[in-house]
Amino acid sequence: MFRKSELIDAIATKNRGLFATPTDRVAIQRAIARLEDCNPTPNPLESPDLQGIWRLLYTTSTELLGIDRLPLYRLGQIYQCIDTEAQRIYNLAEVEGPPLLEGLVSVSATFTPVSRQRVTVGFERGVFGLQRALGYENPRQFIQKLQAQAKLPLWQGIDFRINRDRQSGWLEVTYLDPTLRIGRGNEGNLFVLQKAA
Fold this sequence. Notes:
The longest helix has 15 residues, at 22-36. The protein has a single domain, classed as Lipocalin (Beta Barrel), CATH 2.40.128.280. It has 197 residues and is α+β, with helices and mostly antiparallel strands. It starts with a helix and ends with a strand. Helix 1 (2-11) runs antiparallel to helix 2. A hairpin with a 6-residue loop joins strand 3 and strand 4. The protein is globular, with a radius of gyration of 17 Å. The chain has 5 helices and 9 strands; from the N terminus they run ααβαββββααββββ. The chain has an 8-stranded antiparallel beta barrel.
């Protein structure tokens, strides 16, 4: 599909949005809107394609991109796991740093469908620390660890509860196919994600 390849080409060299100029962002938003117009999945929340681990290709979220501003550290891969059966979302950001000091930031939330495309999201738990101390190998393994342990010991990392009444929002799936997903958030942020292998 031409519109899909047009978007992939537009974001390919933008490092998830870190390298996007204001002109780039306008062009990317237009490419996203054109692709959303031909969304093949009108009921994305009911699609089995939604389930799984997604890797972030592009975002306008300054909160996520701001992780790249930490001294001596750079933003690595960002993943989002959607568990449709349990209605849970897990966000993981790998943080590249000096050898043996690579970091990880993780946030988990529950979601509730409110329309065919939109869910409300209530954030519940945050975890951050060094990948080595957390025993991080890959997103799937770490999510299984979070599911098995209600709270990680302090020596592994900082594991804290989030007040879901104060930290909530919504996310709308505006495009979904078996390999690509586009979402829009309540703060006006755009997200383009690719299904992880």
